[in-house]
């Protein structure tokens, strides 16, 4: 649990640092996208607690959502430095937000009373399986998109150093 607490602090530190740096450099697009990534993280946290069950309990215990959120915020922060120089980074950022949120919102869970999805509103096993597939695919796509953001950032940084 200490890792989760430190992760929340690290996430806020990343967001605050990014906003301050963006204001200093005058990069308005980065400020907007940074606030949007912070909003995505906040929605994911709310979704996490409103859908809490045994799966989320064990994932929280292993700090999986904390590590994923820190990686999401950190990689987006690094990539957003070049958002005004690359349409690719803008595209990857939006896709990153969509896949990040979909992964957490569609992740089903279960408790002692059975399985459920979408804030406990869905109890149909077929829909829960579909929700799990959407969530799994979203998490995988989010990891791929985060890697693509890193690659795009490296490409832009190399071209600017010449």
Q: Could you give a short description of this structure?
A:
With 162 residues, the chain is mainly alpha-helical. 79% of the residues lie in helices and 4% in strands.
Task: Describe this structure as you would to a colleague.
The protein contains six helices and two strands. It is mainly alpha-helical and 162 residues long. The protein has a two-stranded antiparallel sheet with strand order 1-2. A hairpin with a 2-residue loop joins strand 1 and strand 2. The termini are far apart.
Which key phrases capture this entry?
162 residues, mainly alpha, two-stranded antiparallel sheet, elongated
Major β-sheet strand ordering? 1-2
**Distance between the amino and carboxyl termini:** 46 Å
Structural class: mainly alpha
In DSSP terms (H or I, runs of 4 or more residues), the helix count works out at 6
Rg result: 17 Å
Low-pLDDT regions: none
Average predicted confidence as pLDDT:
86
| Range of strand content | under 5%
Helix percent band: over 70%
Looking at the structure, what is the overall shape? elongated
Q: Major beta sheet, specifics?
A: 2 strands, antiparallel
N-to-C series of helices and strands: HHHHHEEH
Strand count = 2
